[in-house]
Amino acid sequence: MISVIILGSRPRSLERCLASIAASTPPGPIETLVVVDERAAAARSAVEAWAGRLAGLRVLSARALRVGAARNLAIAQARGRWLCFLDDDVVVPPDYFATLADKAASHPEADAIGGPNLTPPDSGVFERAVGRLLSSWFGAWRMRRRATGHPHDAWVDERSLILCNLALRAGRLERESLAFDERLERNEENLLLEELRARGARLLHAPGLWVYHERRSTLPAFARQCYRSGVGRARMTFLLPGSLRPAYLLPLAPALALAAGGPWAAAYLAAVVLNAAWCALGDERPFAVFARLCALFPVGHLSNAAGLAAGTLQAAFDRQPHEDRARYADA
User: Fold this and answer.
1) Contact 66/184 with Cβ under 8 angstroms?
2) Where residue 64 falls among pLDDT bands split at 50, 70, 90?
3) pTM
4) What fold characterizes domain 1-91?
């Protein structure tokens, strides 16, 4: 009893995602709910092309909703016991849903199950470089498990899970009256997962439950992704201060080192070069990947640090009434 929920905005990627769901081996999902902005005609057409070929396919129209609100719209109409969230630029392997059903049966105490998102094998050089950054300690610290996976099934916190490959037990959300925070543009799943853990829920990372996830293909797109992640982390921390961990502040260190200049900046840039060389090993074009990582590491660190600063300022000047944050303070 699995309901798939997707926010659809990229037609070509969405077509590949739906094709992979349609090709999955039994037991497949009972329904696939795709939320599409009513102004996105191309995305709607991409979904409607699968009508009659993908069981339980439904298009939900929305207009200018934030991502949390769009997902909550789908949750309210989903019928499955498990809500499986996929990004529209994800491709699932044929046994994905069989693996999810097996993990849910093997771990009945789990309220959330997720796994790694891997770089597609046909990715270009830049995308492979982004994938290697996301899999590295220097680029992602503990969050690298979202891209590499743990060696075995493991009970985790939100640092090892990501919304492009995440299933939540619908009954637990309903019982706790929880949903995605509709004010956040990023990190809405991280906040929800931390809320679940605060209420005694258990989160499972299953490395066998993997997907292929497209990487950003340009430096500006990657910078925007890192910046928005920083903003989301800062605003999430404002709502739930107990979720802050020192590792989330690490991107501030490169910014301070470069600002200080001299030996501090030299030490950071040396670390960039060494980690870029290490991460490029094994690629079919190591020198090309190395060159891109030499730019990606500092851009990622500095963009995330800028997002943390911007998100902190936004939260500090937020006029939101105190009572709206009561449930986070209680957690």
Assistant:
1) yes
2) low
3) 0.90
4) Spore Coat Polysaccharide Biosynthesis Protein SpsA; Chain A (3.90.550)
